[in-house]
Amino acid sequence: MGFGQFLTEPEFKFIIVTHRDIFQNISQEISRFGNEYAERSSVITLDKDDMKKMGLKAGDTVVAKNTSARVVLKVESSVYEKPHPGIAFMINGPWANALVPADTGGTGVPRFKKIEVTLSRSKTEKVTPLNDLI
Amino acid sequence: MYKGPFVCTGCALLCDDIAAEIQDNRIIRVDTACRKGVSRIKGCSSPMSCMVNGKAVDIDTAIKEAAMILKSSKHPLIFGHGNCTLETQKKTIELARKIYAHIDDTSSFCQGPLIEAILNEKLPTCTLEEVRHKADVVIFWGADPSNSHPRHLSMYSYFPRGKERQRGWEEDRTAITIDIRKSDTAALCGDKFYEIPINGDSEFINALFSALSNKVPKTSFNMDPKKILELANILKKSDFGVIFAGLGMVYSLDSLEPLLRLINKLNETSKFYLIPMVGQYNMRGFDHTLFKETGYINRVYFGREKIEHGPQHSIIELINNNVVDAALIIGSDPLASLPGEIAKKLANVPLITIDPCNNLTSQRSKVTISSALSGVECAGTAIRMDGVEVTLKQIIETDRFSDEQIIKQIMGKI
């Protein structure tokens, strides 16, 4: 048990943009309750430099937080996307949706593709399970 | 024994060339379909059963309980329909009228504005067959069909050697992606990928409009004007251009005005059309059906005195404002697709789910009614993403009722 665990992890502002993924789609067709669906839907993809700045490596977990929810996600690094500092990508699903604000200003259209959050490194927490989201 | 061709209901492309190997009334192999389609046709691993308050019941008991909930509700909502046949959708609209319900579908928070503009003849559109045979310029705008509609590029938009495009993608077609991220589809487009910032679509449209008007295009995100002028040149020279509009574009535009202006400008010099990249296999069908009956594509309230429509009748605002006291969910999983806070609120309303498979919504429902998987266990019709009606065939036999039969029975008990 080290001194570091008592320090608060710094929070960084990000915008999450959601997108589709064929492999998550397949796992969704098979079962919403399967491990593969959960594993693919709970990943947040970050820019390499942002990961470096936050002291993160692939497979680490981060806490994504805003006024709507607090969700623990697994980090992956971008592969072929151009640099995207401050922007994170997630496959759309219940983990990303938990962070989408309910307020639409009366339009009835939530901001599914521009989710403002803060991200901080998580030391010990595991990815939020599906049942805790709803 | 191989049978076919069947229609895949994995997405709104409704691929109609599916072959299936059937043994003892089981589908043991699916050919031609994409990975997603194969998973849809083979069926889920957790089929839903009929339940009331978490206890297994026979279908008659579940239907009776569902009818009782709807009958005693003052403000019922009927939501979903994206994975239902046209025949079912007609019945759910009839049910909504009968019980003075609110009715809505996922187009309410996705492709609705585009479908509405097409049905009101504000946006020119074409069929996917025309794309295959004629299109020389295809633009994937805020869309990534390589992931959302895996056979889009090979069946219709890029790779086929169409009647007037015999040289296919190598020489006869130019594929362009406009997006905020280099998607798998953008990677295929090479240097014809136009990366824009979040919510930058409207500004990019204005810059492109300037370039089409022979003015120097400027953007606050410093995209090279030469690149935009080069794009304008490609579009001007096009004989048959198509914009495939995805959610990235829809969510970014506050109104369709910039898009309509761009399409009109493009049609001054060439022929340009738009097809919305609809996800669920028959979401567009619901919008067509409701439009035909009410003049609106979604967000309708069948009041006792008149039909009302507007954002206040969207599922999001109905739940936000605690209007609904019971909901029938059919062919959809809103607890998985709505914002978390709204999903939690919806989960506290008495829910009835009709679906072939267990999902997040069924797990929290008071009543679940197991139905046949359309296009596999029952036949019907549906509307493809381009507005073309397609007939779905039955592949295997089942004891389960179709959605349509279930709705009919519920209506009979109200």
What does this molecule look like?
The complex is a heterodimer of chains A (134) and B (414). Helices cover 20% and strands 28% of the residues of chain A. Chain A is of the alpha/beta class and 134 residues long. In chain A, a hairpin with a 4-residue loop joins β3 and β4. In chain A, α1 packs antiparallel against α2. Chain A starts with 11 loop residues before the first strand and ends in a 12-residue tail after the last strand. Chain B has two domains: 242 residues, Rossmann fold; 165 residues, Dimethylsulfoxide Reductase, domain 2 (3-Layer(aba) Sandwich). In chain B, 38% of the residues lie in helices and 20% in strands. Chain B has 19 helices and 19 strands. In chain B, α3 crosses α14. Chain B is globular and about 65 Å long. Chain B starts with a strand and ends with a helix. The chains are: A alpha/beta (134), B alpha/beta (414).
Concise summary:
The complex is a heterodimer of chains A (134) and B (414). Chain A is α/β, with parallel strands linked by helices. Helix content of chain A is 20%, strand content 28%.
Please give the radius of gyration of chain A in angstroms.
15 Å
Sheet with the most strands: spatial strand order of chain A: 1-5-2-4-3-6
Beta-strand residue fraction of chain B = 15-25%
Give the end-to-end Cα distance of chain A, rounded to a whole number of Å. Answer: 34 Å
Average of per-residue pLDDT values of chain B: 97
In DSSP terms (H or I, runs of 4 or more residues), the helix count of chain B works out at 19
Shape of chain A: globular
What's the gyration radius of chain B in Å? Answer: 22 Å
CATH class of the largest domain in chain B: Alpha Beta
CATH topology group of the largest domain in chain B:
Rossmann fold
